[in-house]
Amino acid sequence: MDPHLLRTYVTVARLRSFSAAARELGYTQSAVSQHIAALEQDLGLPLLGRRPVAPTPAGERLLEHAGSLLLRIDAARADLAGYAAAPREELTVAAAPLAAHPAVLDALPSTGVTLRVLPRDEVPGAVATGGADLGLVDGIAAPSDPLALPDVAPLTAAALPGAAAEPLVVVVPDDHPLARRAGVRLTDLADARWLDAPAVGPPLERLRAAVGTPGGFRPSLRYEGTDVRTLVALAAAGHGLVLLPAGAARTADVAADVAAVPVVAPRLVHRTELLRPGGVSAGPVARVLDALGVASQGP
């Protein structure tokens, strides 16, 4: 399967337009049509309906594979490019909204640093494809388990030395019946209304898997931003419950309009991990890793 044809198909499917895809990719519309026809011939299946332009069922299935395939190709290109390029003195760090841990911030150089806040799921791809030199990701896990990360490239993940896993709390309005509780079990809240904030809070599907309630944790409102204070303000206004690490809930407290109720079961914690490309690190990346006490050479 030719990756150039696949990339053209993904663009057409996303934009729902051959002409818009041609403009974005810098091709003629005729070339885009030829790419799609060649890919359909290669696979022996129609992938796109033409009026309107939309993926067929087979095309939808291909889209499920395409993102990871193209990301792996871009990651391989970026990985090999590192062998030819001289070490850069600038440093780019991609961090999920709740993952900018003080230990890492303290270890950054005083100049030449760019910190990019990205949705959690985009951080591994940014590191894998060279968009960032280091990544900070977070999520919920059992106390002894590492984070479950997508397999996008040979990345090295490391726990931050001295950074204990944080307890989790459920953020509720201050006048909520749970607000004065000493602790809460997540199983008791499976039928409550929740805020769906995949870029900041734990994805609801992860909660369902962790608690074992496939039909629970129904979203009442979806928040697609990355600002924790806005998310807490939505909880304060009664739009739904949200699960956060205790430290983030304290920092984002909105005028004491919310209460943070500790989670007592199941045993889950909020964990932050550092991502970097595999192999030997040099330049400012190696200096940051040394400052953190993290080995500068991958497995």
Classify the helix fraction into a percent range.
25-40%
Q: Based on DSSP secondary structure assignment, what is the total number of beta strands?
A: 13
- The residue-averaged pLDDT reads 88
How far is the first residue's CA from the last residue's CA? 31 Å
**Strand order of the biggest β-sheet:** 4-3-5-13-6
For the sheet with most strands, the description reads: 5 strands, mixed
Rounded radius of gyration (Å): 22 Å
How would you classify the helix and strand content by structural class? alpha/beta
SS summary, helix count: 10
Q: What is the H/E order?
A: HHHEEHEHEHEEEEEHEHEHEEH
Per the principal axes of the C-alpha atoms, what is the gross shape? globular
How much of the sequence lies in strands comes to 15-25%
* Poorly predicted parts: none
